[in-house]
Amino acid sequence: MLTIAIPKGRILEEANELLICSGIIKNSVKESRKLVIESPEEKIRFILAKPLDVPIYVRYGVADVGIVGKDVLLEDNEGLYEVMDLGIGACRLSICSRPGTVCQRGELPRVATKYPKTSLRYFWEKGEQVEIIKLNGSVELAPLLGLSHYIVDIVSTGRTLKENGLVELEVIEEITCRLIVNQATFHLKNTVIEDLIERLEAGVKV
Ligand code: PRP
């Protein structure tokens, strides 16, 4: 039995479509309150996890493989093999703010984000000192309420920014979903993993 961790939410539908196109499953993995979904015919079990938790389930070997956005992996890829770009869930990780945002002289720019490590690394590499404020969601609230000057967040359609009067200033990274594999599983179940990758590659090309 192969256990695959998939993120709940927006990626699920595209992941589901890819798994069906690749012939890995016949029936959809629909989001419900059920968090473990078994597909005994295909000898596959799905775990529906929060996106930021997918690498954790895979690292601890509770899941053999996982589907996860590159945004999450930039933050946490320890002990994982990133084996394939699945091409789904395309979006970007960007710096955004209210239009015309400026910091007062001597003021440290505050950046709110769900991605503290990636943000810190990005500003550090640019030689800019900032204060990072870690939030867990609805990050766009921060500049609206004066909690931060900037945010580093996912922009997909741009609708959330637009509806909250924010603008995208700079793209940090183009994001797509990746297939990650537990390092021990990669060696122990190599044939199964290689077969999965082959099928997904065929599915991605469709
Ligand atoms: C993500 C992201 C933005 C939004 C961008 O949030 O953090 O808020 O989607 O998408 P858009 O450009 O298509 O509007 P998500 O819905 O995952 O929830 P969150 O705010 O709780 O992080």
Mean pLDDT value: 95
Taking pLDDT < 50 over at least 5 consecutive residues as the criterion, the unreliable ranges are none
Tell me, briefly, the overall form.
elongated
Number of helices: 8
Oligomer: single chain
**How would a crystallographer describe the biggest sheet?**
6 strands, mixed
What Rg is obtained from the alpha carbons, in whole angstroms?
19 Å
User: From N to C, what is the helix and strand string?
Assistant: EHEEHEHEEEHEHEHEEHH
CATH architecture of the largest domain: 3-Layer(aba) Sandwich
Q: Ligands bound here?
A: 1-O-pyrophosphono-5-O-phosphono-alpha-D-ribofuranose
State the separation between the terminal residues, measured CA to CA: 26 Å
Number of strands: 11
Brief account:
The protein is α/β, with parallel strands linked by helices and 206 residues long. It has eight helices and eleven strands. The mean pLDDT is 95.
In words, what does this structure look like?
Strand 7, helix 4 (116-125) and strand 8 (131-134) form a beta-alpha-beta unit. The chain starts with a strand and ends with a helix. It contains eight helices and eleven strands. The strands form two sheets. Strands 2-3-1-4-11-5 form a six-stranded mixed beta sheet. It has a five-stranded mixed beta sheet with strand order 8-7-9-6-10. It is elongated. It has helices spanning 10-21, 54-59, 70-75, 116-125, 141-144, 159-163, 183-188, 190-205; strands spanning 2-7, 36-39, 44-49, 65-69, 80-85, 91-97, 110-113, 131-134, 150-155, 167-175, 177-182. By secondary structure, it is α/β, with parallel strands linked by helices. It has two domains: 2-89 and 176-205, Periplasmic binding protein-like II (D-Maltodextrin-Binding Protein, domain 2), CATH 3.40.190.10; 91-175, Periplasmic binding protein-like II (D-Maltodextrin-Binding Protein, domain 2). The model has no long low-confidence stretch (mean pLDDT 95). Bound molecules: 1-O-pyrophosphono-5-O-phosphono-alpha-D-ribofuranose.
